[in-house]
Amino acid sequence: MRVHITSLYGMMGVVGVSQRRTAEIGRQLGFNELGIFRYPVESDTDAELSKRYDGISAGIGSGDIVIYQSPTFNGTKFDDYFITNLRWRYGQSVKVIIFVEDIVPMMYQGNEYLFPQVIDMYNKAHALIVASENMKEYLIEKGVVNPKIYVQNLWDLPEKVDISITPKFMKRISFTGNDGKFGIMDAFPESDVALEVYGSDKREDVPQNINFNPFISDEHVLLNKLREGGFGLVWAENEHVRNYMHYCNSLT
After folding, report:
1. Which of 61, 123, 133, 210 is most buried per CB count within 10 Å?
2. C-alpha–C-alpha distance, residues 216 and 199, integer Å
3. Helices (DSSP H) in the chain: which residue ranges?
4. Residues in contact with 110: Cβ distance below 8 Å, sequence separation at least 6, in sequence order
5. Contact between 100 and 37 (Cβ < 8 Å)
6. What percent of the chain stands above pLDDT 90?
């Protein structure tokens, strides 16, 4: 028996990083990685999509376990095609576990129409892994009848941190994220407290105490920067985003 775990490539930002981090932990446990590249799936014919599936799943055999990190952001069609074909080809001989790290119909307003397809896909799996008890209850309300739903309560960051270093007290707050999504800049007042924003485009119409920094993909570099002192902040002005984070406090 082998255990396989999918990993997303060609995706910038924390989504791609988090999936590859999770796959790396899996490899340390002896899992086999199934690489999935993000691409414009709508350009594929059914025959081309079938070939992609065959290439990704070639190493899967009877008796194996497949952990599918969802979503791949290749569209619901791609994800459902993969899960459906695994179940059709192997039946009960391959156990399919969907690791629900984000839910597209909840992430973006206007995508709620995708819920029936996504819920149907979740019900095809042998088990689900979700980010919180709130998410589990919400999915059940939405129609998930899968009897095996496991909550991953505690996330770990596989990065060495020197805990002997004590950060200094500084009037500085660090925020990592896209301001277009979270809206922190318009809510942060002009004061003697500095706001260090990582990963957002620079704006000119903000107070002088707001400083812009590029997105840092290397967690080690970011952690060293944050350990200089100050405080970290999780923030969401947008009500839709705030509600989503209530359910999906994911590893991203």
Report:
1. 210
2. 7
3. 13-28, 46-57, 76-90, 104-107, 115-124, 133-142, 179-182, 219-226, 239-247
4. none
5. no
6. 39
Are 47 and 106 contained in the same domain?
Answer: yes
The sign of the dihedral angle between the CA atoms of 73, 14, 214, 231 is positive
For the whole model, what pTM was predicted?
0.81
Contact 172, 194 (CB under 8 A): yes
Token pair recorded at residue 150: 């496991």
- The 3-class secondary structure across 4-48, one letter per residue, is EEEEEECCCHHHHHHHHHHHHHHHHCCCEEEEEECCCHHHCCHHH
Given 100, 119, 151, the domain boundary residue is 151
- DSSP one-letter code for 91: G
The region that residue 168 occupies, defined by phi over 0 for left and psi between -120 and 50 for alpha, beta otherwise, is beta
Which pLDDT tens digit goes with each residue over 29-53? 999 999 999 988 888 888 998 999 9
Residue 209 in domain: yes
Other Cβ atoms within 10 Å of 128 Cβ, number: 22
H/E run at residue 228: none
Same domain, 104 and 177: no
Domain's final residue, options 151, 183, 207: 151
Say if CB 167 and CB 227 are below 8 A apart.
Answer: yes
pLDDT at 251 over 70: no
Q: Are residues 176 and 239 in the same domain?
A: yes
Write down the mean pLDDT value for the chain.
86
